[in-house]
Automatic annotation (TrEMBL), chain A:
Keywords: Membrane, Transmembrane, Transmembrane helix
CDD domains: TM_PBP2 (cd06261)
Localization (cell): Cell membrane
Bilayer-spanning residue ranges: 33-54, 61-85, 97-118, 154-181, 201-225
Xref: InterPro entries: ABC_perm_TupB-like (IPR049783), MetI-like (IPR000515), MetI-like_sf (IPR035906)
One GO term (biological process): transmembrane transport
GO cellular component: plasma membrane
Name by which UniProt lists this protein: ABC transporter permease
ABC transmembrane type-1 domain sequence ranges: 26-222
TrEMBL record, chain B:
PANTHER family tied to this protein: AMINO ACID IMPORT ATP-BINDING PROTEIN, GLUTAMATE_ASPARTATE IMPORT ATP-BINDING PROTEIN GLTL
Presence of the UniProt keyword Membrane in the record: yes
Annotated family: Belongs to the ABC transporter superfamily.
Organism: Billgrantia endophytica
Annotated Gene Ontology cellular component terms: plasma membrane
Subcellular location: Cell inner membrane
Protein name in the entry: ABC transporter ATP-binding protein
The keyword Membrane is annotated on this UniProt entry: yes
Span of domain ABC transporter: 23-247
Top-level taxon in the UniProt lineage: Bacteria
Length: 234, 253
């Protein structure tokens, strides 16, 4: 397959020469996904911890919904945000559709349930272990929360990385709410889909390699954090 | 303050004085899933001293301490702490059989407890270091608490209780999983707490330990209070057949 060989070589030279188009797409992808993960963590960590610590009517339903939303198909998340932000939608007046902000919102919707649900698991287990001691120290749930989040920090870092993995790898949501506009809302995944269908395999493959490297980096980091935590904290 | 490893002789004041109880348990009952685990316990503990809770496994020793400490609520009955009016509630601490170590350094385990007591953060580190020194743990200050040995963890748990300067300290079988050296360290710590005027309530399986430490003994059996007597009298001539059997090492239930 000489043509593919050429595409692979072309892809590598695009990466190594820091091609501005490729670089622009990678930068936007990182901006969107990192912002989504940041917002998702700021909401998801306290939300997950609160769900672990407090028992209230409807808690079971909330947890079930959260777990179900972990498997939310990205296209459905995209559609929901599309309906919300489209001209006729409730938030249409903000004019956010087909902007990076819309993409951040859509990816946050994908990432938030993962972070909140996994945080609930970790904090719940830790609370189970700490509860008597903290109760003995007369520390209530509200005062316990920051300490629990801190003590679960290594587990929670891998949770956040899992969220980042999901955000950076999805196509459906950003495609629907972003529109894959060249130079504005084109990210790695949507660009790969488009360039492949156009036959521009070099750029598609180049982006694919970067994405693959990113995913490998995220998983490697998660592994290293987990191992270090196990060794250090016992 | 006395050095932990050369604890002062416990003060010579009357140690078992039923006239001025610090803690009163009245008809304390705890039922879990239709099983009566504690049955109408009436108990008065004097203001000073070391009380040893004895009894076989499942007698309700841990449960009684958890109820008195306020970790769980009784099904019925009352836990009454006699403090002077207008005074804040007594400062209490508890050391568990399996110490709960926060996933932090040994030092941070102490500063966390100080933060819980709302000690200003500027003073926390110095107080914590001083306490680690006293408990012979200074070289482990920066080590993660959860990788310490069982004996070190229990000493750290005692140090964590120490920084709280509790007026009452509950110890739930603190030496049951420890080697003799660690056990002695724990007993020395108990003496040091006592010398500071801390009221001590401790459960144990170890009759020799009870002989060494106790001012008075509470014998529980099957969720009932069998006997509460000064230690000397308990070991010389227990009143009840259960207590006699327990001292002889027979199985009772």
């Amino acid at each position: 397959m000489p043509e593919n060989d050429n595409a692979f070589q072309a892809a590598l030279s695009l990466i190594l020469s820091l091609d501005p188009v490729l670089l622009g797409i990678v930068t936007l992808s990182l901006q969107v996904s990192l912002s989504a993960v940041l917002v998702g963590a700021l909401i998801g960590l306290p939300l997950g911890a609160a769900l672990a610590l407090w028992h209230f009517p409807g808690r079971g339903l909330a947890v079930t919904l959260l777990n179900a939303f972990m498997g939310l198909p990205p296209v459905v998340a995209g559609l929901m945000i599309y309906l919300l932000l489209s001209r006729a939608g409730p938030l249409g007046s903000l004019g956010l559709l087909f902007t990076p902000t819309a993409m951040i919102i859509a990816q946050t919707l994908l990432v938030l349930p993962i972070i909140a649900a996994l945080t609930r698991d970790h904090i719940g287990a830790l609370w189970e272990e700490y509860r008597e001691q903290l109760h003995s120290l007369r520390i209530g749930r509200v005062r316990a929360m920051p300490g629990l989040l801190w003590d679960a920090r290594f587990a929670l870092m891998t949770v956040i990385l899992a969220g980042f993995g999901r955000a950076s790898a999805e196509v459906g949501a950003v495609l629907i709410v972003g529109g894959n506009i060249d130079g504005v809302t084109r990210v790695m995944t949507t660009a790969i889909a488009l360039e492949t269908s156009k036959g521009n395999l070099a750029l598609a493959l180049g982006l694919g390699l970067v994405l693959l490297g990113l995913v490998a980096l995220v998983n490697g980091t998660a592994y290293v954090i987990g191992e270090r935590a196990r060794r250090r904290l016992g | 303050m006395t050095d932990l490893y050369h604890p002062g002789v416990p003060s010579g004041q009357p140690i078992w004085s039923p006239s001025a109880p610090l803690l009163k348990l009245k008809g304390l009952t705890y039922v879990h899933q239709d099983t009566v685990l504690l049955h109408e316990i009436d108990l008065q503990l004097a203001r000073h001293g070391i009380t040893l809770l004895l009894g076989p496994n499942g007698a309700g020793k841990s449960l009684l301490m958890r109820l008195a400490h306020g970790l769980i609520a009784p099904t019925s009955g009352d836990v009454i702490w006699h403090t002077q009016p207008d005074m804040p509630p007594l400062l209490q601490a508890m050391v568990f059989q399996h110490p709960v170590m926060l996933r932090r350094t040994a030092l941070a385990n102490l500063t966390y407890a100080l933060a819980a007591r709302r000690v200003p953060w500027r003073r926390r580190r110095a107080l914590a270091m001083e306490t680690l020194e006293r408990f012979g743990l200074i070289s482990l200050a920066q080590r993660q608490a959860r990788v310490l040995s069982g004996g070190e963890q229990q000493r750290l748990a005692l140090a964590r209780a120490w920084v709280l300067k509790p007026e009452v300290l509950f110890l739930d079988e603190p030496t049951s999983a420890l080697d003799p050296a660690s056990m002695r360290a724990v007993e020395e710590a108990v003496h040091a707490f006592h010398a500071e005027g801390t009221r001590i309530v401790m459960s144990s399986h170890d009759l020799n330990q009870a002989r060494r430490l106790a001012d008075d003994v509470v014998l529980l059996c099957g969720g009932r209070l069998v006997e509460h007597t000064p230690a000397e009298r308990f070991f010389q001539g227990p009143r009840t057949p259960e207590a006699r059997a327990f001292i002889r090492g027979e199985l009772i239930w």
